[in-house]
Amino acid sequence: MADVGSIQQAKLVLLGDMGAGKSSLVLRFVKGQFFDYQESTIGAAFLTKTIPEKGVKFEIWDTAGQERYHSLAPMYYRGAAAAVVVFDITNAESFAKAKNWVKELQRQGNPNMIMALAGNKADLAAQRAVTTEDAKAYADENSLFFWETSAKTNVNVAEVFHDIAERLPRASAAPQPPVGGITLTETVPERTKKSACCS
Amino acid sequence: MAEGSRTAFELWPALDHKSKQSVISAIAVDDAARYIYLGTSDGQLSEHRIQSTSSGLRVSLGARKHVGKKPVTAILHIAIAKKLAVVCDGSLLLLDYESLEEYTMPGLKGVTAIALDTAAGLQSRLAVAMRTSKRSVRVLVYEVVPGVGLGTQMHSQPAICLTQAELSEPLIVKAMAWLGKRIVLVTSLRYMLFDPITAAYSELFAVSPEAPPPTMVQAVPSVNQAVLLMDQVGIVTDEAGHPAQSALTFPSTPAALAASEIYVLAACADGVHVYDRTTAAWVQSLPYPDGLRTAPGQQLYTAHNPSGSVVLVAGYRRVWMLKPVALEDQARELLRACNYDQALRLAELCATEGAAWAEVAFAEAAFMLMQELRFREAMDALQHCSTLVVQPAELFPLFPDETRPWAGAADRTPSRPRWGLHPPLADLRSLVRQRLAADAAAEPLENGAGEDVERQLAAAARQCVAEYLLEVRQWEGVDFLDGVDTLLVRLLAGSRADWALEAFAAGPNEARLDLLRSPLAEVRRFHVLALLSSNHGDAAAALRLWRGIAEGSLDEAAGEDGEVAFAWEGGPAAAAIHRATALMLDENRVSESLALEYLPWLLASLPEESLIVLKGRELPAETVLPLLRRVSTELTSQYLEYLVCSKGSQDPAHHTELALSLAEAALRLMPPVDASLPAWERARAARERMAEDSAPAQRLRDVRDKLCGLLEESVLYDAQVVLQRCAKTELWDEQVVLHSKLEDHKAALRILALILGDIRLAEAYCARWAGQQGYLFLLDMLLHPGHSREPLYAEACHLLAAQGANVDATKVLDALSEDMPLSVAVDVLARMLRTAIHNRRSASITRNLHRSLHLSTAAERAELMQRSVVSTEERACRVCHTRISTKMFAVYPNGVLVCFKCYRQHGEASICPLTGRDFRLPEHPLPAL
């Protein structure tokens, strides 16, 4: 068991298409609640949850799935130790969006970020549009770990987060040092370069 | 009142801009909130004085100045420099605060935004963004200098440029805000974080093409945060540009933002909406008076002073002022509305910033929550209150029976700051019944269910209060601690929190024992009563109670947890004995007489525990030993061992008794042997059994090791008595030691050689104790073992081979039996005789050599004696040159003659005093080989 005195903080971001169930997953994990009609997230919601036995405090950013808030996402996944990309197993389009999120994270996210792929709404297996095999194969190809979850029936919800907690590198699980974003200056002064390199 | 809502601000109409030619285009307020500055679309700047009157607010025009032909787009009040920064027609003007005298900053054209760093202490850093070309923007940082006059007659510039940097940006900077040491730059399409020192900048995020305008930023300098707007979302970012809290979700896209204390205000079309920045929760909506709404796409302007005491919102013609309601009043309002969560959160936030009222809010919330039987939350709230605000004795009215001696205690304490939001606390039973009655009115309970619910609610409340009291009683300044502790014992006993109760009773406390005896006895919690008695110095009562529990005369209540239930398998008796033992070990609390009084009980109940007491404290051995002898020889032995080995007792009786008890123990452990067998065979059988790898054999080895160790090392025991006990037993090793102590070496050797058959040990014994005589005894024994045993020739030869040369050969030969076959001993005897002859011849040679040396020395002496010396009158001493005449003199072998006096003084007869030659050395030393 982890030393209670050495709880490390880990920034975790949830990404995915609108209606995939990101907020429901987080609410189920953090508060043990589920609402059939969960309001659409606007901007992003911030929650925390400590897993004492793993010695981790998750700082969870539940982002909005609407396309109009897509441009805000880099603010939330920048410096994140882990990301959970969520899709709805009854919606093939949400799986395609999830793949786009994975690509974006691979391109612009923290290279050491732990990524999980969560196929949510597993309780609606009868209406399944994405097979477990397809999702699993995609996850394996991209070194993601995959869980089929159901926030409604509380299946595999805690497991996703516990799995992430297990995989967090103990030294770097804490939030990354502040990085101001993507440097746009074309003629970056030498001093700035050094600073960026060492930061 | 909607959930979470409260009156955080009050909105007042401040002024109307009545001009038909112009509209308001910028607004500012000074730090002290005495002046409003308005910029208008016709390039006018006006100053309005704010006066608070009994009927409300009065704002009057103070001064007006024409600063340009185009609209004034920004006004900033720079308090330290006593200046106003105004942007008009792309130029930056600095105006004197009092005279409104203006100074146009040279070289600044196309200024689009300005921002003042209000967190820069005594400096006034002003950031200026200007368009320099179609593809670039320049950001400059000035320090506005205080005290430098404006006007053409002054040579000094009122602002000094600290840094400037060029950014490749096709769009103009619409807004700016300082965020720590960096600046947030806002264009229509993106938000950037710019470092004015390194000129590096990075994109925070791009504005979605779908998002409606405008883009804007509102700094919150007090916490180094900023709120960035996209669509209807306000993103609170920290100094590093990371999101700091959930996004603020405004009801519509705001036209302007402002910040005050913990709030962010969004001026929207329908009114001003207030959000708690720390939680992103909506707090209040203030519609514009008279049902006004702004026109679609209409610009609104906001301004606030750094302290946040005034926020201004302006449309084209009207200005409204928002004044924050004191957070204390807000908390009070929330509590009145029974909005405990919000009130507690606000109090918690303000407590971290040191607000004194926060504790009062916690206290009020706690007492109100108690009225609603929400004891868990109430006690959590009370944990935030110091004893200056809430005394635990204030909870006594809940439990009138348990706290009767302190009735009215809370009233006697000094008055504490309160808001009076809750009625006086009734007793818990009444509270529960009131609540149940209220609930039953809404939803009647089944017959009989009410009592169960009542009991459960009361028990839960008692448990919560007990947990709180356990914590708070450790704080400083607790009044009536005896009452608190007494109540705590009653509550814990009632809630069956056995571990907590036992730990509390065993720890330092001021519970009133006299008030607790009956209640604890009634609920049969004698163990706790004993712990309290022990803790309060009444060791006799504690021991009496524990003895009663152990003996069954006191029927201890069965516990679900705690020492009695779980700690020891023996139940209450074991728990009682364990605690009694621990107490009896304490010499300070339990006198010798008291310990001796309870020792027999302890010995009878759990002998092992009593031994801990005997070893752990000083008790007279002469009293303890008779008690122990009656109980167990094993314990007696252990105690004697402790006395002798650990305490170093010098009493011979202890040593003798220990030796005897160990011998008895060893004999008890020894397996029976066939008495008809000869001794040596019995000894061998016993040894073989003792060497077995079994627990009994190990125990026997341990006991005999201890016994032998004692017999060898101690000189105090009576060896004769111990030998008497060991004789005729198989304790042969012990008998050897005892015989040795009694100097009966022959007996010892007989056991070693003939019974134990250990010649090496016998030899060692001889070497250590018996000398040459011992060897001869031993040899004799081996050759004449008696008891019809055959002589042990091999052992005898071995002895001779090892020791023969050291023993007189004639005595050995005398000792050898005539029956001994020569063939067995020939080798040994031959070697022994050869050695003897060799020794004799060596001695003869040595004697003759010495004789030869003696002869040669005598001859040399005789030769020297024959030498003659002629002495005349002139002959003088070679040392002191005194004439010899008739005096005595000495002549050295080399002919040097000295007077007798010098000879004596020189001292060394064999060394010449003149030449230093040593006559003992050869005259011509042999060459080295």
From TrEMBL, chain A:
Entries under Gene3D superfamilies matching the protein: P-loop containing nucleotide triphosphate hydrolases
Keyword vocabulary terms for this entry: Nucleotide-binding
Region feature (Disordered): 172-199
PROSITE patterns referenced in this protein's UniProt entry, alphabetically: RAB, RAS
Pfam families noted in UniProt: Ras
Cited InterPro entries: P-loop_NTPase (IPR027417), Small_GTP-bd (IPR005225), Small_GTPase (IPR001806)
NCBIfam families: small_GTP (TIGR00231)
The protein, known as: Uncharacterized protein
Lineage of producing organism: Eukaryota, Viridiplantae, Chlorophyta, core chlorophytes, Trebouxiophyceae
UniProtKB/TrEMBL annotation, chain B:
CHCR repeats mapped onto the chain: 611-809
Xref: PROSITE patterns: CHCR, CNH
Domain CNH, residue spans: 21-301
Keywords: Cytoplasm, Protein transport, Transport
One Pfam family this sequence matches: zf-Vps39_C
Location(s) in or outside the cell: Cytoplasm
UniProt cross-references to PANTHER family, sorted A to Z: CNH DOMAIN CONTAINING (PTHR12894), TRANSFORMING GROWTH FACTOR-BETA RECEPTOR-ASSOCIATED PROTEIN 1 (PTHR12894:SF27)
Name the UniProt record assigns to this protein: CNH domain-containing protein
